[in-house]
Each structure stands twice: as structure tokens, then as C-alpha cells.
């Protein structure tokens, strides 16, 4: 739908764009949100995030990671610096090249393309010149979560979901040893952060490297995330889920000149549990810092944790694909 006249009047002159912009339906209110600028004689086609000024810094900090990956031949959404700028004292615009794209389908073709692209992303990020700073950031994030959970018995948690608190008293927060060397990874490969071009069979495009700044872990963290968000959630039939995981992982392993070592036994299930537990621990820290967390977020990560326990036999079988 067309963007509000108020927003066109504020943004288009500032960015020198031809009005009107089109607002993408994301449920956002006010002037913040996602917009599309059609190509014109003044500008290329753009995807524009309009955020509160305070939200801009982490998005700007993520761009060097996306740009490094893109320079290494991995398709990644990088900022267009010409159209990325402060709009006014409240709003900031971040502009990216716009392409017609879709989310992943549940067929094996997309999973094979994603697996191969992910292997190339990991190999690219392993070469990035930010390893030490990301390792330090990841250590600080882990300390924040760990310190918060150590204080559960002394904190006033009455305003928090008690089912989540009880889960966190026993859940593994530290990622397990995997047998793979830690490095920079993407860190947030949820379903919305990978797009597949519509017009051609180019590799999928990786978005939102915001968490990469904090993501110094075994590449298995990203793999577990993808298995969870692209396969387990969408396939309640275990045979289908296993076949899809096999397609993903075979493509991933094929992208390396030398096969990675076999992972440690039992670590995939533990990794999936840790992903959910760490997310819940972070929600606790965020809430105790007087920020709002929706009930949906609490429910989502409790569901994902429970799903891992219920499907442990399937997950163990999938793990076998990485232990051959």
C-alpha cells in the first residue's frame, strides 16, 4: 500500500527519492517500518527500513559483515550508503538494493541451495578480519545470560512466566562442544532472514547480520538454527523432516574442499536446547532491564525447547548425517 503522505513528505526530499514510497505490510505503526522505493530516473529500486534513531547503530554495525561476505561471493544484503542517512532527530533510514524475492519453500530444491550457500557463508566469515572483537562480544553476551540465570533465586521474577523460569533452572545454556572450531557465524538464520530471488536461480540472499557482531561459535549453531526453523517447524512427519535435513546437510558438506570433522555425539540435540534456553535467558535479562517482551516470544522459545525434547530420536538420526 502507498506510504502515508506524512512519511513521503519527510523521507523523499531527504533521500532525494521520487514519491510515493510503498509500505510493506509488517504490522508496524507510525512512520517506522519497511518501505519500497520504485526505480526512477532519480534512484534505483530500494528496500528501506525506517527505524527510531536509537535502533540504527546495531544495524549500521552489521553492514561490514554483510559487505565482507558479499565481497567473498556470498549473496548478502548490503546497505546503499547514498540513501542511508538520518531523516530527522527521531528517525533513521537504512536503504538496501531491492529485488523480487520470496521466502524458502518446503521443497528440497530450496534446502539444497540454502545448504550450499550456508557452507560458503561460513567459509567467508571464517576469513573476516573481525574475529577478536566478535569473540569478545560473544563472551560478554554469554556472561550477561549466565549472570542473569545465576541470580534467578534472588530476583523478583513474579512478573515473568513461571514455566519459563522453571525451564531455565535446568536447561543447558552453554553451547556444547561440537568438534568444530569456533569462528564468526551469522547467528540469526531464522526463516525471514534468507530470501530466494524470484526471477532466476541465483543463490539465496542472507539478511540481517545484526547478531553476527555477537556470534563467535561453532558453525553447528547456524546449522541447528536452520534445521529448527526451516525443517522441524514445517515438517511434523519425521520421515519427511529427515529427508529434508539430509538434503540440506549433504549440500552443506559438499561446499567444502575438505570435509569438516565428524561432530561430537549428542551435540545437535544439546545445541537445539541451548538455542532456546539462551533465548529465554536473554528475554529474562531484557525484561529485568525494564523492556517489554511479548507473550508470543516467551511461548515461541518454550515451544521450541519442548519440540527438541519430543523429537530427540529424529534429531539423533539427523545428527548421524554429520558424524559419518
UniProtKB/TrEMBL annotation:
Domain Aminoglycoside phosphotransferase: 45-244
Pfam families in UniProt: APH
Superkingdom of source: Bacteria
Protein name: Aminoglycoside phosphotransferase domain-containing protein
Protein source organism: Candidatus Tenderia electrophaga
The organism's taxonomic lineage, starting at the top: Bacteria, Pseudomonadati, Pseudomonadota, Gammaproteobacteria, Candidatus Tenderiales
Amino acid at each position: 500500500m502507498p506510504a502515508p503522505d506524512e512519511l513521503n513528505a519527510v523521507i523523499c526530499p531527504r533521500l532525494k527519492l521520487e514519491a510515493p514510497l510503498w509500505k510493506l505490510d509488517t504490522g508496524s505503526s507510525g512512520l517506522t517500518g519497511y518501505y519500497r522505493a520504485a526505480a526512477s530516473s532519480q534512484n534505483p529500486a530500494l528496500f528501506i527500513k525506517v527505524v527510531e534513531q536509537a535502533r540504527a547503530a546495531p544495524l549500521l554495525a552489521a553492514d561490514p559483515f554483510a559487505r565482507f561476505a558479499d565481497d567473498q561471493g556470498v549473496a548478502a544484503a548490503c546497505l546503499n550508503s547514498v540513501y542511508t542517512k538520518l531523516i530527522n532527530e527521531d528517525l533513521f533510514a537504512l536503504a538496501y538494493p531491492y529485488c523480487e524475492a520470496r521466502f524458502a519453500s518446503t521443497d528440497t530444491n530450496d534446502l539444497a541451495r540454502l545448504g550450499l550457500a550456508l557452507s560458503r557463508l561460513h567459509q567467508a566469515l571464517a576469513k573476516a578480519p573481525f574475529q577478536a572483537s566478535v569473540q569478545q562480544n560473544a563472551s560478554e553476551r554469554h556472561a550477561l545470560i549466565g549472570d542473569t540465570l545465576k541470580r534467578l533465586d534472588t530476583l523478583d521474577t513474579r512478573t515473568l512466566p513461571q514455566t519459563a523460569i522453571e525451564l531455565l533452572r535446568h536447561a543447558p545454556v552453554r553451547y556444547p562442544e561440537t568438534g568444530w572450531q569456533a569462528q564468526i557465524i551469522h547467528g540469526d538464520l531464522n526463516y525471514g532472514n534468507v530470501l530466494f530471488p524470484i526471477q532466476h536461480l541465483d543463490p539465496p540472499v542472507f539478511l540481517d547480520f545484526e547478531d553476527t557482531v555477537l556470534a563467535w561459535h561453532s558453525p553447528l549453531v547456524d546449522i541447528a538454527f536452520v534445521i529448527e526453523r526451516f525443517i522441524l517447524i514445517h515438517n511434523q512427519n519425521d520421515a519427511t523432516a529427515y529427508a529434508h535435513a539430509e538434503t540440506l546437510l549433504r549440500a552443506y558438506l559438499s561446499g567444502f574442499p575438505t570435509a569438516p570433522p565428524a561432530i561430537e555425539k549428542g551435540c545437535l540435540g544439546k545445541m537445539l536446547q541451548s538455542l532456546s534456553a539462551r533465548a529465554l535467558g536473554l528475554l529474562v535479562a531484557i525484561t529485568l532491564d525494564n523492556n517489554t517482551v511479548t507473550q508470543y516470544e516467551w511461548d515461541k522459545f518454550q515451544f521450541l525447547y519442548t519440540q527438541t525434547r519430543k523429537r530427540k530420536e529424529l534429531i539423533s538420526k539427523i545428527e548421524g548425517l554429520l558424524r559419518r
